[in-house]
Amino acid sequence: MKKILTALTIFISLFWITSANAQVVDVPKKAKDHFFKKYPDAKNADWNNNVVSYAVKFQLNNHTNRAYYHMDGRWDYTETYVEESELPAAVKESLSKSRFSDWKKEACALVESNKGKKSYRIEVQKGIEKKSVFYNSKGKEVKSSVSL
């Protein structure tokens, strides 16, 4: 009986480890084709599936990027993570004069949508409150949302 329990424990452990490492089994061809066409110089592409979409994290031009795709393979948007110092002057100026000027800047990204729009997302935090604030390239705040 002890041998059976040991064998069963090993089998379950191996199954669990294998399942944990197999995040993405089948990325839609449409998503892969789009990705390799749009980002031919991308390095270290790492795909994952979060049940409602596919995402690929990759390196391009010394920046970390993440592209998001719908389940049917249609591209949704791409984030390019940037330093605060890389933001356009108009965005930095608007942020410094905004209601978030004294909030801690957590992360910044250039967000390119499938509609051809580009915006800058700045994640800010004050105490336990977190927000994502979006600016256009001219420094106009276009949206803010609460983050978890």
Topology (SSEs and partners):
Blueprint: H1 2-21, H2 29-38, E1 43-49, E2 54-60, E3 63-69, E4 75-82, H3 89-97, E5 104-113, E6 118-126, E7 129-135, E8 141-146
Indicate the structural class: alpha+beta
What is the chain-wise order of helices and strands? HHEEEEHEEEE
The top level CATH class name: Alpha Beta
The side-by-side strand order for the widest beta sheet comes to: 1-2-3-4-5-6-7-8
Rg from Cα: 20 Å
Q: What does the model show?
A:
- The protein has 148 residues and is of the alpha+beta class.
- The protein has one domain (27-146): Roll (Nuclear Transport Factor 2, Chain: A).
- The chain has three helices and eight strands; from the N terminus they run H-H-E-E-E-E-H-E-E-E-E.
- It has helices at residues 2-21, 29-38, 89-97; strands spanning 43-49, 54-60, 63-69, 75-82, 104-113, 118-126, 129-135, 141-146.
- The longest helix has 20 residues, at 2-21.
- The termini are far apart.
Question: Tags for this entry?
Answer:
about 150 residues, alpha+beta, Nuclear Transport Factor 2, Chain: A, eight-stranded antiparallel beta sheet, elongated
Q: What can be said about this structure in brief?
A:
The protein is an alpha+beta fold and 148 residues long. It is built from three helices and eight strands. It has a single domain, classed as Nuclear Transport Factor 2, Chain: A.
